[in-house]
Amino acid sequence: MSVADVSIVVLLALFVAALVPRFHLGLAALPVAFLVGLAADRSADEVTAFFPGDFFVLLVGITALFAVAQINGTLDWLLDGMLRLVGGRALMIALVPFLIGAVLTAIGTLPAAATAIVAPIALGIAARYGIPPLIAAVLGLTGIISGLLSPLAVYGSTAYQLGEKLKVGLPGSAPGSFFLGGVLAGLIVSTACLVVGFRTGAMPSGHLTPVGPPPADPPATEPSTAHGTGRPYLEESTRRARSPIAARILTLTCLLAVVVLSVGFDINIGYLGLAAAVVQQLALRLDPSEIISRIPWNIVLLIGGLLTYVALMQDLGAFTRISELLRVEGAPMLSLLVLCYIAGITSFAASSIAVFATTMPLVPAIVADGASPVGAILAIALASILVDINPLGITGGLILGAAGPDDRAPLFRQLLTCGLVSVVAAPALACAAFGWW
């Protein structure tokens, strides 16, 4: 058995062990990566180089930014505003994360950046209005998926450019077809999620009110605290009042600046979030320990460890080995189905866009055998994307990071279950529903 095969077996063992109480995947993944690396003659420095520093900055920066918004009451104020805007209707409240995610990715926001923005909103709504965190998370992620195949989005543009480069015979309407397919897939998954939620009673119905009372504006003449942080809005020692309205204006300005600069100018959203958090911390005279304590370090360890191990597996050729094991000869639709499973299984633990790009060169042979060029590309893209609803990648890490401490453990198990189910079902459904386009 090759080292690549061993790494696959070890990854499966880690997935199984994740179901055992008191087992922490992140804590185990780093030493496992070190041991597998030793077996493959990789030094400790080489293994350490696989640690996803970009993810570390992304998660820490965005959670720090939204920690400030939570501490000064801006996040609760925004959620209350959303409730008033949609009239308190449960269905409309639940769809807010979906719509925000769809718009962000449709205009070109990268999936990780969009998730970083949507996750705190989705989980904040869930906590405030009694919506199950899993439903809120899935709706936010399916919204992001819905916009990913827009002509302006990374998946949509990559799909068309690679299709043209590979000369698979894409029609001029292909970009629109890709976008429509992504929107339909997102709507189907989100509708199914809501139907199950309402039918089982897990999703509240009718008009919703906040589970807890909204934070009251503190008086301007005496000390007050927000959200149990113990941080006064007025410090007697300095006699300087921090107006909640001024704090909200500053926080909203920072949030808008982060979105505009990351989307419009392709500046790293993690560093932007950290910079905005520091500006607010100094301007509002917040205790930095309040912000640091709200960063989910256990999630940073979890996803950082897993992504380190996955990168090592890629370097060892494990995912190429998986593709070789799954590849079979057959009719065009059967070959397409196999490719969808290759893309889906590999994307579960690796970068979806990277998997999609490396799977695309296999499409011309299927098209030459009679498969639809638009349908083949669309099916493979959706098979790669739909498995992102799992806790073991950057997307899942951002969702878990935005969840409350009490919700993280059950949400991790629920997302892991969704991910495992999606690996089995999503490739087949994507091929059946869109392979003929």
TrEMBL record:
Region described as Disordered: 207-238
Domain Dicarboxylate carrier MatC N-terminal, chain residue ranges per copy: 2-146
Ranges of Pro residues composition bias in the record: 211-221
The entry's keywords: Membrane, Transmembrane, Transmembrane helix
TM ranges: 6-39, 51-71, 91-122, 134-156, 176-198, 249-271, 291-312, 333-357, 377-403, 415-436
Pfam families reported in the protein's UniProt record: MatC_N
Protein known as: Di-and tricarboxylate transporter
